[in-house]
Design the sequence.
């Protein structure tokens, strides 16, 4: 209850901040003519990134016949659904006139990556929901059977969602078919969602964004933060729901290997993204790169690189580092580092426009979010955690039927 | 349009003062198309060995003598350190009385600058003989109540383009002969022009020590109408909504239809699962 209460309180503060933004306009933020994408868009990129974990854990590992990940699939899908919902919300929050969102559909240009983003986010949301729903059907039957242990509204909801599931052979056949289709389909859509998000930046000539590598760079980073998020969730759910029997040390060991691989991959892309432009040091890139390496953003930059990638790699290379508690700490480091990394991708570039204005006011040249922006951004993060908490309280966090099926297959 | 800002005849540097920067004031006299004349005062100062414009500097401008009745205007320099003035009607008789005049600029701190000019005019004419197009320019000065040729006056002849003048031949500048004339061949073929093929020829004397700045324009139909094909309204990635390339529509919509078609198929699977469940429930019902 304390956890939920704290999350609701943060959401309410965020809602108040948004009320102020709605009534007074975007002037309550510190976004100005130079930095027009601040922490809202950083948060959006972060949410989109973390949502990709659904495709990694559920689809890629399933299609690769990696069965140890089965107990983690629902955690991954819940994270994916809640993250994609809040990615959609935060992008509307970034709009000064949210009622004009509808214009994207009425007057949208198909040539614009923004429209592509809207389409793939919507599609990914539905695929993730389906991927959450189909494996849930057999579990709903178990939940309905235990109606005496739950409140009436919950029983009603379980019946509404899955009373028709009788566990017949033909139902299982159709369900398996649907899950296989979804697993295949979600991979290109997941790649599309984050590639298109990267194209929002990479289709411009701006320093830090003008890269042909951005799609792969974003996807590798997304898999890393998603895996980090799953590790954190695994530890928390395991501890508070006493799931040691289902989420074992073996799962942490395996996820540790996944995370270290992804961290190395993302570090590789980071080296490409920063070292090569720094080697050439083209004039428009110079101010941006120096600002990151040794300037105003250097503390955040090195924090994101060290805490988000290099320290986790060193910790996870050792077997002891892949135990539950160190893994939890590493997961937190990866997620926090990833959030700041998204901030570094979005904001510093905007402070160095190709065509700077004459006599630009001083507050155009620096950006630090206002309290309303912090409140809304933190509110959206708390909201995503609230949705995950809500799901975890209502549905089994470990797929019951699939895990039993796995155990039976093993034995 | 300003015709140039090179120093005309004189500039006076303020007395050295250890606390104040050295202020330099120059006066430019400009005549456009022989019917409009104005003066430009340019103030700058040397600070730490670098020239800086003097903004908001009050300057008094006089004709011939530093006296109230010969005051042309009380000026204040703008952001670029310049100020403009025209000779008021009250000084017409003084202006008409002499062939040569002196302009005097006095700043608030006593810096004084002078510039003298002789009245002059510039004429332009064109000729087209055997396909050779020639521009003839003549500079005349006012002397003993008659216009006489001004010789050895350096001038430029060009054609007006966006952002500047394009020289009409190979020469950068020309000098008038004893008749005050210059003849230059127009060597620019097929220059883009307006719908009637009109170009604006420009002849300019810039900051001449004796005559100041003179300029004159003449419109000639020596250009070629150039219709710009901008492709606006055609299908392109940068076109407006509804004008996207067909290949983009085909790709995007085929992907959307394939993915959403599959999602609809999955919904149909849910319906089928439900039907099977309902049928099974009926069969197993007691």
Sequence:
């Amino acid at each position: 209850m304390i956890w939920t209460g704290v999350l609701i309180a943060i959401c309410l503060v965020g809602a108040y901040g948004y009320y102020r933004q709605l009534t007074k306009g975007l002037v309550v933020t510190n976004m100005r003519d130079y930095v027009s994408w601040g922490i809202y868009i950083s948060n959006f990129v972060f949410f989109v990134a973390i949502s990709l974990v659904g495709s990694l854990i559920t689809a890629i590992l399933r299609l690769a016949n990696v069965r140890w990940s089965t107990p983690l699939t629902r955690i991954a899908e819940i994270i994916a659904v809640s993250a994609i919902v809040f990615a959609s919300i935060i992008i509307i929050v970034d709009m000064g006139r949210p009622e004009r969102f509808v214009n994207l559909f009425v007057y949208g240009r198909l040539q614009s990556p923004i429209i592509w983003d809207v389409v793939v986010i919507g599609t990914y949301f539905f695929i993730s929901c389906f991927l959450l729903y189909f494996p849930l059907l057999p579990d709903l039957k178990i939940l309905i059977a235990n109606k005496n242990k739950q409140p009436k509204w919950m029983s009603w909801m379980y019946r509404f969602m899955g009373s028709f599931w009788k566990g017949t052979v033909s139902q299982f056949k159709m369900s398996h078919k649907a899950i296989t289709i979804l697993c295949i389909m979600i991979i290109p859509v997941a790649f599309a969602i984050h590639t298109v998000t990267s194209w929002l930046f990479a289709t411009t000539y701006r320093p830090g964004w003008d890269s042909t590598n951005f799609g792969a760079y974003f996807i590798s980073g997304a898999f890393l933060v998603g895996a980090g998020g799953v590790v954190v969730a695994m530890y928390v759910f395991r501890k508070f729901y006493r799931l040691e029997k289902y989420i074992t040390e073996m799962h942490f060991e395996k996820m540790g290997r996944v995370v270290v691989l992804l961290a190395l991959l993302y570090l590789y892309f980071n080296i490409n993204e920063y070292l090569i432009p720094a080697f050439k040091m083209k004039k428009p890139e110079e101010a941006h790169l120096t600002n990151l390496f040794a300037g105003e953003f250097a503390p955040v930059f090195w924090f994101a690189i060290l805490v988000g990638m290099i320290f986790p790699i060193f910790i996870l290379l050792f077997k002891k580092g892949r135990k539950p508690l160190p893994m939890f700490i590493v997961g937190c480091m990866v997620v926090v580092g990833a959030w700041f990394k998204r901030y570094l991708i979005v904001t510093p570039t905007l402070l160095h426009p190709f065509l700077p204005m004459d006599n630009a006011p001083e507050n155009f040249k620096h950006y630090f979010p206002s309290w309303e922006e912090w409140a809304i951004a933190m509110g959206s993060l708390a909201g995503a955690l609230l949705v995950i908490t809500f799901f975890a309280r209502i549905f089994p966090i470990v797929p019951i039927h699939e895990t039993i099926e796995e155990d039976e297959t093993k034995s | 349009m300003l015709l140039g800002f090179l120093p005309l005849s004189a500039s006076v540097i303020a007395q050295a003062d250890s606390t104040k920067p050295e202020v330099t004031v120059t006066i430019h006299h400009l005549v456009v198309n022989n019917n409009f004349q104005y003066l430009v005062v340019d103030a700058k100062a040397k600070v730490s060995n670098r020239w800086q414009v003097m903004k908001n500097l009050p300057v008094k401008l006089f004709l011939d003598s530093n006296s109230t009745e010969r005051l042309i205007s009380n000026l204040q320099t703008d952001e670029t350190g310049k100020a403009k003035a025209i000779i008021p009607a009250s000084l017409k008789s003084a202006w008409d009385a002499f062939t040569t005049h002196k302009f005097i600029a006095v700043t608030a701190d006593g810096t004084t600058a002078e510039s003298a000019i002789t009245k002059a005019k510039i004429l332009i004419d064109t000729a087209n003989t055997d396909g050779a197009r020639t521009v003839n320019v003549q500079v005349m000065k006012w002397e003993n109540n008659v216009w006489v040729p001004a010789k050895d006056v350096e001038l430029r002849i060009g054609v007006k383009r966006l952002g500047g003048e394009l020289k009409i031949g190979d020469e950068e500048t020309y000098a008038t002969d004893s008749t005050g004339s210059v003849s230059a061949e127009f060597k620019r073929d097929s220059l883009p022009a307006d719908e009637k093929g009109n170009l604006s020829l420009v002849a300019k004397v810039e900051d001449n020590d004796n005559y100041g700045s003179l300029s004159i324009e003449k419109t000639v139909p020596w250009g070629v109408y150039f219709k710009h094909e901008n492709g606006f309204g055609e299908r392109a990635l940068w076109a407006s909504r509804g004008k996207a390339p067909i290949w983009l529509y085909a790709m995007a919509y085929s992907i959307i239809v394939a993915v959403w078609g599959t999602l609809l198929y999955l919904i149909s699977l849910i319906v089928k699962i439900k039907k099977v469940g309902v049928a099974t429930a009926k069969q197993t019902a007691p």
About this structure: The CA atoms of residues 154 and 180 of chain B lie 10 Å apart. Residues 1-17 of chain B have pLDDT under 50 and may be disordered. The first strand of chain B starts at residue 11 and ends at 13. Chain B has two helices and 20 strands.
